[in-house]
Amino acid sequence: MRSADNLIVGLYGPGGFGKTTLANEVSRLTENSFPGGTLWVTLGEDMPDPVLAGKVNDLCELLSGTRPTLTDPAMAGHRLGELLDERAPVLLVIDDVWAAHHLTPFQAGGRSSLGLVTTRTKGLIPEDAAGTAGMSG
Are 109 and 78 in contact (CB under 8 A)? Predict the structure, then answer.
């Protein structure tokens, strides 16, 4: 999802503070607001480019029924963006992001969708994001 064209919201805080649980609850409570449905992808700390591209390809397959064989995350993200742009608004949850460049494939389209990002690092949320909520103890 292109952060300049649509809404990205971030949840950040230490591990174990409930970011994923909160994202799941947001997904449940807002399901009627996203006629295109909810897509959920969990990234994690160890995310080499081919694995990231595979996760984006998984989302493309869910949307289209056809799995791309793209190994470059940017190219896979472009395809995902095309598919999101063809759909009604979608809630795209990008869970457990550890590196800013891992968000790039999810910023190539989906202008009418909402991206909900969970991360342990506040600085990973794009500066033009609509909002960021922190969790601390």
Answer: yes
